[in-house]
Design a protein that fits this description.
The protein is α+β, with helices and mostly antiparallel strands. The protein has three domains: 47 residues, no CATH class; 128 residues, no CATH class; 248 residues, Sandwich (Immunoglobulin-like). The protein is 36% helix and 25% strand. The strands form four sheets. Strands 7, 8, 9, 11, 17 and 18 form a six-stranded antiparallel beta sheet that branches. A hairpin with an 8-residue loop joins strand 1 and strand 2. The protein is rod-shaped and about 130 Å long.
Length: 495
Amino acid sequence: MANTPEVSVGPPGDLGLRPVSVGGRRVGKAGSLKELRKILDRAGVEPGHEIHWLGGDHTVWPDVAWVRQTICFFMVAGLLATAYPLFRIGMSDSGDALTYAGRIAGLTILAVAVVEALAVLAAIDYWTKRRWRYSGVVLLVGVVISLVCSVTLLLLQIGERFTGYTVVGVVLGAWSSVALYGLFKCGAWNGLHVPRKIAIGLMVSTLLASANLAYSQIYVPYVTTPLIQSGAEIKESNMEKGSRRAYVTVHLFVKNAGQVPVYVLGSIYWVHGVSASNKSDRLPAPNKRNKPDKPAAAELIYDGEFVSPVGRVLNPGEEVAQDAVIEIEGAVPHKYEAVRARTEVYVIRKDRMKMTAEYERSRMSGKTLKEDCQPGDPANAEYRYRTGISNSSEILNVTRGPQRITLWKVAGKDPYVIVDVSPPNKRISFDPRNPSANEEASERYGLTQVRGSTAETPYAELLEKASATEKGATPPPTATPSPTPTPFLPQPPAR
């Protein structure tokens, strides 16, 4: 009898399971007589061995296994439903986000996803045998993460279209609230002992580091405004011998003088002849239709694009320039008083969206464009560029959904350009009386209309230079130099 091990069954614990000890050594937990018999068989205790019952006899088994297993299942399901999108977003943003801050955020989300995966293992342990002392704490952290993620997802979708992720946010919010209540009721935080001074130190350090990172890598780049310069310069002119056709060379350029790279969505320039009877010393302000304003008797000589290819990236310090030769027919001395050239460029921030090369190849014009015309598209469009875009991070793709950018050139006496950013299934009516129709997209992506400086030269002087060139003489210098372009702080385009 001296070598016979003592078998004891302790009182029920938090889960209703009773600890089993053989010879003073814990060998398991049992929730029923059947489980107790399996534990004793593994420990080598034969049936009929005397058992010491503590905290109740053999009839006390408060554990309800199916309830505990059901709770465990829903806990694991909710945590996995949170971990999967976190892993997907974190993996995407950590390598493909357009900004440094976006990649740091991606790595942070990936780390949170790892914690959520550990919470799955903690949930299994907490609702089965509770072998790990801190499983309840890790599970509690995982549920709090689910609640924060669901609330953040719903806040980001305020004002956005309804998506499947909206449903995910609502379901996870309800699940995490109920789970959090149950865990607090069970005292899941028990067993965690962290000295107060260490906890406060960690919190203060984390807050300071987060604030510094947010300011230097998120706030400063976000508020930095693109600085784009554009303009036109009227250069030499010449005339064919025996002809009344004058040819004027116009230098057109756009330069990124700031610190933010941009996509050049499109460009347009106009060359006008200003009548002598309506010459205005003051340049007119652009009107609300993105069209070049001009004196009433100014005649459009030529218009066109000058940045190629469209959709190209203009990095800080980079400049794109082109010389265009404009033909003026019927070059008589008193036809115009001056010739005026002006540019406009349409850009969008590269650090807030990603555009594919399909934009350049998407040009549509003529009969094909008319057949593809849809309600809300501008009338008299000469050509159109269109392509899908993605946001600067995966989390924005999730909340905003697919977006598409479209550029039209509208023909007429005063040609102008319209740019639109909107979801593929949404049509915006381009009402000239409502210039802020697409203001939200302009603010999100930095969509900007850059009005370049205007160059103006007396018409008689151009003819004098052209005549001199025709006769082989040295052309006189231009008396009125083109104004030096000044830095332009772009504003969202007006309709």
